[in-house]
Amino acid sequence: MKTKLLTLLAMVAAMGSPAIVLTGDNVEVVVSADARKSRLATWFAAEEMTNFLSRVFGRRIPIVNAPGPGMASVVLGTNEWSEAAGIDVLSLPRDAAVMLSRGSRVFIAGVDGFGFRPDRRKPTINIERGTLNGVYEFLERFAGCRFYFPGELGEVVPRRESIVVPECRLVAKPDFIVRESTASLGEWPEEYADSERERMGVMFMLRMRYQTRKIPCCHGQFHSGFCKRFGKTHPEYFRLTEKGVRHIGDPLRDKVPDKWSLTSVCNSSGIWDEIYADARSYFLGEGPEVRGVLVQRGEKGFEWGPQARYREYYDVMPNDGMHKCFCDGCQAAYARAKDPSNYANELVWGRVADLARRLKAEGVKGTITMMSYVPYRNVPDVELPDNVAVMVCTGGPWVRGQASERSMETLRSWSENRGGKVWLWHNTGRYGAMVSRSVDVPSPTPRAFGRHYKEIAPLALGAYCSNNSPRFLHSAMNYYVFYKVAWDNAVDVDALVDEYHRLMFGPAAAPMGRFLDSLERKWMEEVMGNVEDTPLGEMAVPPSEFRFWSQIYTLGFVKELDALVREAERLVAPGSIESRRVALFRREFLSPMFAHAESYDGGGSVRRELDRRASARRPSVAGGTGEAVIEVRADMTNRVNHKVRFPVSLSPGRRYRISYFVRCHDVRLVHKWGGVGACVWENEGRDRALAVTGQGLCGTFDWICQSAEFDVPQDIEPAAFKPRLDVRVSRAVGKAEFKGLVVEDVGTARSVRGKGEVK
Predict the structure, then answer these.
(1) Is residue 611 domain-shared with residue 597, that is, in the same domain?
(2) 665 phi and psi angles, rounded to 5 deg
(3) At residue 95, does pLDDT exceed 80?
(4) Residue 598 to residue 593: CA distance in whole angstroms
(5) How confident is the model over 314-348, as pLDDT tens digits?
(6) In this structure, are residues 600 and 550 in contact, taking their beta carbons and an 8 Å threshold?
(7) Mutual orientation of helices 130-143 and 41-57 as an angle, nearest 10°?
């Protein structure tokens, strides 16, 4: 959109068209009185406009309910003045806005919903706010504002004496229909109080022009509550295990049927008749009690889950972590699969096609949504009716080499099959990269993000982008570029990133630009580009935590980055906003790397840990000798984990530190989730992990120390709390030795501090 708008503005200027000049003395923001009473999104658009115009002009710009004589009026939303100007917002694409300048008025209007509450995430995200999108477009195009992240340090608001708006009519609209990202943005900097972080997350999404219509497609079967509904009456609906038992419950937690569950169904059973009946009931406008669809978590009652929205879409995607069913029908279908890695392809898509055809035959209007996902990733041989919408799960901006080529081929085949009407799911984050969250390495890769989303633009309606880094700032610019490309596929990404360096850091743009570009190259080339020869063949494997700090993010490399930040610090004026931004990036990006790199030097880490233990003198709450040797041969990889267990005594509401010494000999991964490490389990390995250390350790190296701190929740149920500690070799072959395993009580859990003892 930027390219298109700038071209039009240049044409207007060349033609000598009249312009409106806004100044601090003559500008006013106009919004109807009804907008505030009805909590229309228009009112918040007015607050944002006056907020930023006031900062641009250095004086408070008023919000009024009618244009004043002799004033330059910025008229927002649908009202008598916009209607008199001939603006019809109902003809606009969703989330779009008209910007019309005529005479002494600038009109900005789009479709705005009622009940808008920017302090609450859910109502805000799904309510239409076309005028607000137009306000942000106006502020960026004409006032030079930039919204990199919320708060003074992330907002660029240049001071001006005037803003010149040529007389013109523009339509600001998104190129991607789907513009979505994860709600988990990571840890915010200390400048943000805990009480405002959720609101800041909402503001970030609003200013990125997050979509207002979500097409639901994410493991919809989970929200249908099959275990609760059919676990006792229809066990044949659930997958048959190799032992000949119907598995009803969560395969990870082994829970009973009345608990929420991620269990896999038997796709050869009558469960798809139930799915059809659910979808039909929903599309016909019936309540969830008609089909007995139960709330999955917390309160009791009936609920159509988030897979059903707007009475337009119904998500039938199978649950995550799909397991094979060993009944005769499913096994026969798997045996016919062309691609063994997608063994359920024809079976699952065949059931989806049957369901969609039944709905069409009965004249039931609505669209079934389904994701292309392992083990049903490929375009099926069966013809899919036009009431099936497909989301395609591909690798995203961080996937390299052959894996990237395969992802693009999958997207092309689905795009061709559905006439370009597909959208994408990308787990581009520590989860998608399978990189330990404990590795506090910044991964700003905005140029890679921009290139990727521009490449997929001709093939898709948009994307869900997950880039969940430990710290918000590590992925903020990745998201910024994603949303800019989503709004305007033609945007110049390199120019966008270079502008970010210039506007954020001023005279320090050059060294800070080299600093951030160095981090992007390092991540893309040596972390995501790390290809290893494994027993299962060549595989792209994110480096182990040990390799992170001993070979890639070495102390020498971190010192090179430090030199760039020091240069930046010399170039900015003390106390300036640029100097505060440089300080913020030093603290959020560089300091954690320094701490890791300095401590991760093999024998040095062992010596420091022994010295720490001698001075701390805390007893260990772990039992046993604290020593173990685990050796896994190539013929033993049928088991995922090879482990030695230790008892551990933990108390609710306390914080603990686990530490141990480990050395490895020829440890090679057989899966990208593999490696050597330790895990503290909440409930004997059947529930969630409280702590994971050493994730991804592999190779050959002498003794090093591994440590981590973790909290035990205060509200945990004592009768169900049976903690266990494992040291393990997971999805790998080779030999690992452990010694000196201790677990120390270091104080009150962070979640309950302020209510008693502190660490």
Answers:
(1) no
(2) -130, 115
(3) yes
(4) 8
(5) 999 998 878 899 999 999 999 999 888 899 999 99
(6) yes
(7) 10
| pLDDT tens-place string over residues 10-25 | 444 444 568 999 999 9
Q: How many CA atoms lie within 13 A of 322 on its CB side?
A: 24
> Each residue of 497-510: pLDDT tens digit?
999 999 999 999 99
If one compares 295 and 7, the residue with the highest pLDDT of the two is: 295
Q: Which long-range contacts (C-beta less than 8 Å, at least 24 apart) are formed by 49-54?
A: 49/74, 49/76, 49/135, 49/138, 49/139, 52/139, 52/143, 52/145, 52/157, 53/22, 53/27, 53/29, 53/139, 53/143
The answer to whether 394 and 453 are in contact (CB under 8 A) is: no
Q: Are residues 647 and 595 in the same domain?
A: no
Q: Are residues 227 and 154 in the same domain?
A: no
From the number of C-beta atoms within 10 Å of its C-beta (0-12, 13-18, 19+), residue 591 rates as middle
Task: Determine which helix (DSSP H) or strand (DSSP E) holds 64, and give its type and residue range.
Answer: strand 63-64
Total number of domains constituting the chain? 4
**Helix/strand number for the chain, H first, E second:** 23, 27
- The 3-state DSSP class for residue 154 equals helix
Residue labelled with tokens 């972590």 = 321
* Domain termination residue (choose one: 602, 637, 661): 602
C-alpha span between 131 and 113 (Å, rounded) = 10
Residue 197, both tokens = 């972080």
Q: Which residues pair with 23 in a beta bridge?
A: 162
What does the block give as tokens for 445?
């890769």
Q: Which two tokens stand for residue 567?
A: 């240069």
* CATH code (residue 50): 3.30.379.10
The closest of 703, 701, 704, 720 to 712, measured between CA atoms, is 720
Give the residue numbers spanning the domain of 69.
Answer: 2-173
Q: Is residue 565 a contact partner of residue 515, using CB atoms and an 8 Å limit? A: yes
Comparing 339 with 434, which gets the higher pLDDT? 339
- Mark whether 611 and 531 lie in a shared domain: no
* Range scoring the smallest mean pLDDT among 129-133, 351-355, 695-699, 727-731: 695-699
Q: Rounded distance, CA 504 to CA 639, Å?
A: 51
